[in-house]
Amino acid sequence: MDERQKSLILNSSLLYPPSQVKLSYGTAGFRADASVLQSTVYRVGILAALRSLKTQSAIGLMITASHNQVSHNGIKVADPSGGMLTQDWEPFADAIANASTPQDLVQLIDEFVKRENIPFDGVKSPEILLGRDTRPSGESLLEAAKQGIHCFVGALSHDMGILTTPQLHWMVRSRNRGLKATELDYFELLSSSFRCLIDLIPNASKLSDTNDKLVVDGANGVGAHKLELLKKKLNGFDIEVRNSGKGVLNEGVGADYVQKEKVVPQGFGSQDIGVRCASLDGDADRLVYFSLPSEDSGKIDLVDGDKILSLFAIFVKDQLSILNEERDENTKDNYQPCLGVVQTAYANGASTDYLKGLGLEVVFTPTGVKYLHEKAAEYDIGIYFEANGHGTILFSERFLSWLEQKCNGLYSKGSEQQKAAFRLLAVSKLINQAVGDALSGLLLVEAILGNMGWSIHRWKELYHDLPSKQLKVKVADRTAVVTANAETVVVRPPGIQEAINADVAKHSRGRSFIRPSGTEDVIRVYAEASTQEAADDLANSVAKLVDRFLGYGGSG
Ligand SMILES: CC(=O)N[C@H]1[C@@H](OP(=O)(O)O)O[C@H](CO)[C@@H](O)[C@@H]1O
Ligand SMILES: [Mg+2]
C-alpha cells in the first residue's frame, strides 16, 4: 500500500469506532444499532475493496439486519462465488472494525496486505456491488461503505439499490461468471424456470384438489415489493402479498416471528383459515409456510425450514429414482449422483428421523449459512436448511453437465426420464445457487406441491414436529459460552453441560442445547420434548441454569 492510499484512509471523517462496543463479524456479518455502524461499514468497504483486489473479482456488500428490529442495521460481504465471505478473513474484519485509532487501522491493513500478498499493480481495480434493504438507515450507511471502497484509486462501486439479500448474492455470482446479472435477469430466470416446472406437472396431479391461492406475509420489508414485481411474470399465478410496507419492519410479522412464536402474524385472521400462507423475513432470505387451524386460537400450524427441506428432498430423490430406472443400455451409465442433506441442532428431531427414514444422508453443522453451505457443496446435490427457513439446494458442476447431456437427446422425447432430467435442470436454475432465497424457494415449493398434487395439509402431515421451545437469556458476557460438536455440547463454562444433561434426562424425548447468538447479545436456549408443557419446562429450567452460571450475578 503506498502513502497516498494510506492518507486516503486516514482522511476519512468516519474513522472512529463506537466506544465501548465490541463488534464481531458473527453469524451473518456485523449487526448493531444503526447509529453506531458508520465507522464499521466504512471499514468493511475497505475490506471489500481488498477482497476484490485479492480475488480479482467483483465482491458484494449487503446492508441489512435481516429479521432484527428496524432501528438495527448491519453489513455482510459476498465473496466472488456469491457465498459468504471466506471465514479466513473474519478475524481481519473483526480486527479492523474494532481498531481504536486511525493509525492502528492503517497498520492493520498494511500488515494484512503484505501477509495476503494483495496486488496493487493497478491491472484490475476493485469492483463492488452494493445493496441494501428497506431500513431508513441504509442510505447513509451505503455512503459510508462507498467512502471505504473509494479509498482505493480507481475503485468501482455499483449501487444496485434496494434488494433482497439473495438478489445481491445472486448478482455477484452471475457477474463473476460472465452471466446476465441485473434484477430483470434474476426475475427472468426465476419465472422461466418456474413456468418450465409448472409445464412438467403430470396430468394426474393437475386433477387433484390443491387449494390454489397463496397468501404471503412480506414482513413489511423488501421481499414484499420484489414479490409483487416477480408475480407479474408468473402468468396469473395467484399470490396475494400482505404486510408489504405500511407497518413496521419485522414487528409482529415475518418469518422469524412466525417460526419462533408460532402465532398468527399481523394482517392475517379468521378469513385465512385453511389457506396456504407463507412468511418472508426482513431481507427475504428466509421462508416458512403456515396455515391457520379451524379454531381461532391465535396459533398457527407451522411448516418450517425442516419441512421445506423434506419436501425438496423427496422431490429431488423421486426425480433421481426416475432417472435410475433407465433400462436402455445406450444411455445408462455408472455415475450415481450423491445426494446429501445438511441441518443444524435447531432442526426438529422428528425431521431428522424422517429424513434418515427416507434413506438420506443427514449431516450437522453449527448455526449459520456459511457452515451449512460449505458442507452442502460437498455433494452432487446438497440440500441445506435451517429450521428458521434459510436454505437452498446446491448442484455440482459435474452433476449439471451430466444432466444436460441427458436432456440433450439421449432420452426419447417425452419419456419419463427426459421429464425428470428437465425438472432437475429447471430446479437448478430456479433455486438460488449463491445463498438461501425466500423468493426462489417459494416458487420451488409451489412448483413441487403442484407436481405432487399436494395441499399444504398433506405436506404438513409428512411427520409431526416434536414440541419445542426457544428462549433468549441476557448474560454478562455471551462469549463465555463455548460449544463443540455442531453446538450440541457446551465445553465452557465447566459444569453447565452436566447440569443440562440432568434436566434433559427428566423429560421424555428431551433434547436441549445452548449457544451464544451470533447476531444478538444473548444466549439462545433450545428445548424439545414429547409434550409442549415438557418442552417449555425444559427450556425454562435450562434458561435458569444459564442465568445461574452466566447471569449478571453468576459465578461463570
Ligand atoms: C436460532 C436462529 O434462528 N438463529 C439464526 C440467527 O443466528 P444467531 O447466531 O442464532 O443469532 O440469525 C442467523 C442469520 O440470519 C441465522 O443463520 C441463524 O439461524
Ligand atoms: Mg434474513
UniProtKB/TrEMBL annotation:
It comes from the Eukaryota. Interconverts GlcNAc-6-P and GlcNAc-1-P. Gene3D superfamilies: Alpha-D-Glucose-1,6-Bisphosphate, subunit A, domain 3 (3.40.120.10), Alpha-D-phosphohexomutase, C-terminal domain (3.30.310.50). It comes from Erythroxylum novogranatense. Mg(2+) binds at residues 66, 281, 283, 285. The keyword Magnesium applies. GO terms for molecular function: metal ion binding; phosphoacetylglucosamine mutase activity. GO terms for biological process: carbohydrate metabolic process; UDP-N-acetylglucosamine biosynthetic process. InterPro entries: A-D-PHexomutase_a/b/a-I (IPR005844), A-D-PHexomutase_a/b/a-I/II/III (IPR016055), A-D-PHexomutase_C (IPR005843), A-D-PHexomutase_C_sf (IPR036900), AMG1_II (IPR049023), AMG1_III (IPR049022), PAGM (IPR016657). This is Phosphoacetylglucosamine mutase. Its cofactor is Mg(2+). The active site is at 66 (phosphoserine intermediate). Pathway: Nucleotide-sugar biosynthesis; UDP-N-acetyl-alpha-D-glucosamine biosynthesis; N-acetyl-alpha-D-glucosamine 1-phosphate from alpha-D-glucosamine 6-phosphate (route I): step 2/2. Substrate binds at residues 386-388, 515-519, 524. Belongs to the phosphohexose mutase family. Keywords: Isomerase, Magnesium, Metal-binding, Phosphoprotein. Residues 181-288, 304-454 form the Phosphoacetylglucosamine mutase AMG1 domain.
